[in-house]
């Protein structure tokens, strides 16, 4: 897929790019960490369940994304980014488990969509692309966990074939509030 191009229409076309496409466009690459930080920090500030209690710093986001991008060439990760009119509106990635006994498996770590782009199919497009990347990389089981109150994300994952395999009641602490941690998996071995 070619990098997204400007659109004069009211309904911009969604472009989902992989890490290689992202780094091949100097303009997009130069703005990526700043844009990703903006999305992640804003979502966390609003209470999104992305693994941080407080908004991550720009350096934290840069380090995390650098690790993911570095693991992509070896097939140990996949990164997908979504753009509307060359504006980053979402990102997601998976990482292969590091232990030798778990190498055929990967964990879908994050799917983050700018609140202004909710309802535009960004989360579905990112997750679908990451599923395809995992299948292509020979991943046998793609896992994820989510906060139990994230009904929209849980519905999306089920609609894409993930099945629940566990729940830890009141496991996630956010101030005085407690949430369940829910585990899902997509077993590609059953789909061959």
Secondary-structure map with pairings?
Layout: E1 14-18, H1 19-23, H2 26-45, H3 58-71, E2 77-84, E3 87-96, E4 105-113, H4 122-136, E5 141-147, H5 151-159, E6 163-174, E7 177-187
Parallel strand pairs: 4-5
Antiparallel strand pairs: 1-2, 2-3, 3-4, 5-7, 6-7
Helix pairs in contact: 2-3
Quick recap of the structure?
This protein has helices at 19-23, 26-45, 58-71, 122-136, 151-159, and strands at 14-18, 77-84, 87-96, 105-113, 141-147, 163-174, 177-187. With 192 residues, it is of the alpha+beta class.
How many independent structural domains? Answer: 1
Q: Tell me how many strands there are.
A: 7
Strand order of the largest sheet: 1-2-3-4-5-7-6
The top-level CATH class is Alpha Beta
Mean pLDDT: 91
Spans of at least 5 consecutive residues with low confidence: 1-10
* Biggest sheet character: 7 strands, mixed
Task: Name the overall outline.
Answer: globular
Q: What CATH architecture would you give? A: 3-Layer(aba) Sandwich
């Amino acid at each position: 897929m070619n990098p997204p191009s400007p659109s004069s229409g009211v309904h911009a076309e969604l472009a989902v790019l992989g890490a290689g496409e992202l780094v091949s466009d100097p303009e997009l690459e130069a703005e990526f960490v700043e844009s990703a930080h903006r999305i992640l920090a804003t979502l966390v500030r609003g209470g999104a369940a992305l693994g941080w209690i407080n908004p991550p710093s720009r350096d934290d986001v840069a380090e995390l994304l650098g690790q993911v991008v570095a693991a992509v060439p070896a097939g140990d990760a996949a990164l997908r980014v979504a753009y509307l009119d060359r504006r980053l509106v979402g990102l997601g990635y998976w990482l292969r488990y590091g232990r030798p006994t778990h190498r055929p498996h990967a964990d879908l770590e994050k799917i983050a969509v700018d609140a202004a782009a909710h309802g535009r199919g960004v989360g579905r497009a990112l997750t679908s692309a990451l599923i395809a990347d995992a299948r292509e990389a020979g991943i046998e089981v793609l896992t994820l966990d989510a906060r139990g109150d994230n009904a929209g994300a849980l519905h999306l994952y089920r609609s894409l074939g993930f099945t629940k395999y566990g729940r830890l009641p009141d496991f996630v602490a956010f101030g005085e509030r407690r949430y369940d941690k829910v585990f899902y998996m997509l077993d590609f071995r059953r789909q061959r």
